[in-house]
Design brief:
By secondary structure, the protein is an alpha+beta fold. It is 40% helix and 12% strand. The longest helix is centred in the first third of the chain and has 19 residues. It starts with 22 loop residues before the first strand and ends in a 20-residue tail after the last helix.
């Protein structure tokens, strides 16, 4: 998950560089990460970085936390810069640009205050580099559109999740496709222009 305002699935913070597995990314913005959230995420990140196991109760806490954050974001909290059509178009074009050469996009959606992506890095391409490229390119172009100066456009950390099997991939993909509907932005996934589910009217 990426955001100028939100996040998702804060486990497995650096499966980032596993080219052999699809990743779910959620990109958030600085305004939404309060100090208690930073402490909680840092604790889980430490588990992952040390290779220590996270027990079921902690995973359940993580899922509950994620659901609360997603509901918070879907209410339109924080900076909704991606609601601007030109910025939403910029982000969508940025995601699609190297599809098929550096990575494979599965499901993705640009929401008013965050972005969800299921992405599979191609051989010799690291997810961390892909993410850095997305953020730098889009940030340089989006900040002048909203009158921002030196402050960051994107949340420094993105929240990634290594997808373990097809069942989990299908669940997350369905969530991403339906996110605009759940948030009350459209009635059908195909109607949301800034997503992999979009189907232009014929």
């Amino acid at each position: 998950l990426l955001t100028p305002g939100g996040f998702r699935e804060p486990l497995n913070i650096r499966p980032a560089d596993r080219p052999s597995a699809p990743q779910h990314r959620h990109h958030p913005c600085p305004q939404h990460l309060h100090s208690f959230e930073h402490r909680w995420l840092r604790r889980l990140n430490e588990f992952a970085s040390k290779g220590e196991s996270i027990n079921d109760s902690e995973e359940e806490i993580a899922r509950d936390f994620t659901r609360q954050v997603e509901r918070y974001l879907d209410r339109g909290a924080g900076a909704c810069h991606l609601r601007q059509l030109d910025i939403a178009d910029l982000i969508a074009d940025t995601l699609r640009h190297f599809h098929g050469s550096r990575y494979l996009l599965h499901e993705w959606v640009v929401m008013p205050n965050h972005v969800h992506v299921i992405v599979w890095p191609m051989p010799n391409h690291l997810l961390s580099d892909i993410l850095k490229s997305w953020k730098q390119f889009s940030s340089r172009r989006a900040k002048p559109m909203v009158g921002m100066g030196e402050e960051p456009f994107w949340q420094r950390e993105s929240f990634d999740h290594w997808i373990r099997n097809d069942e989990e991939k299908a669940r997350i993909a369905q969530y991403i496709r339906n996110n605009p509907v759940t948030a009350g932005l459209c009635t059908r996934p195909e109607n949301w222009r800034w997503s992999s589910a979009f189907r232009a009217p014929t």
